Amino acid sequence: MTATTNDARWAAARAGLVRGWLETKQSLREPGDVLWYFLMPVIFAVVLLFMRGSSLPGTEYELGAMVLPSIVGMSIGFGGLTGPAGTIATDREDGTLLRAKATPNGMIGYLFGKVVMFGSTTLISLALLIIPGLTVAGELRFDARTWMLLLMIFVLGMAATVPIGVALGSLFKTASQTGLLMLGSMALLVVSGIFYPLSALPTWLQWVGQAFPYYWLGLGARSAMLPPEMVTTEIGESWRTLEMFGVLGAWIVVGFVVAPIVLRRMTRRASGAAVAEARDRVMAQGW
Fold it and tell me: Residue ranges of the ABC transmembrane type-2 domain (predicted)?
């Protein structure tokens, strides 16, 4: 019985991978989505361009080189957390979630599909950010260790944030309300050491920042891309690599446990008639 259950779950996961790839290709055909993937990297590249020639206070190290890794970590978390949240209301209104609920282990496949989709699109945005960013942020290291660590951080970051984004997005009734989640994410960035060293903030704010993935993704990216001597700006003057993997791993477990439960409860009250009513309401609004 256990083996059969595990086989069914693996089959659902594989179906989710295929679904995620199909959704990625569909998203890349949407002009609005493609514009969004390009927009943020361009904005960050312009910010780095204005930082060119500026040094980190008290050092001769380029400010842009310090900020770029943090933006890489932030982009992973932002893409995984806020991206899925905006799709949940739409998937609920067009019946996608109802169909997933009716399929054995459908919620597992749904989550895997979202991880693949938003992982792929976030990877595109990261490439668009890093390539031009290298021209304005020198003194970064890019060796085999860097790329391996960045790959691990990317995979863990997507797995840690996408399920949480799905669970949070399910709490909103319409796609427009998910803007509140984006505002909350922006507030968390302030205390996550992305644009300002977390060690310079009050202790209680440091603890708040360390409770969420944003800080650890930024820390991991900095540990991969910055020279060893820059560790002095971090808490405890350490990259805390093991702690980073531990915290992100904990968020992965929480996300994949909580998200299916939340989604099943959300769709418990759904019906074909409710889906049709929601679709008619969206069409009446001119969406």
Answer: 32-266
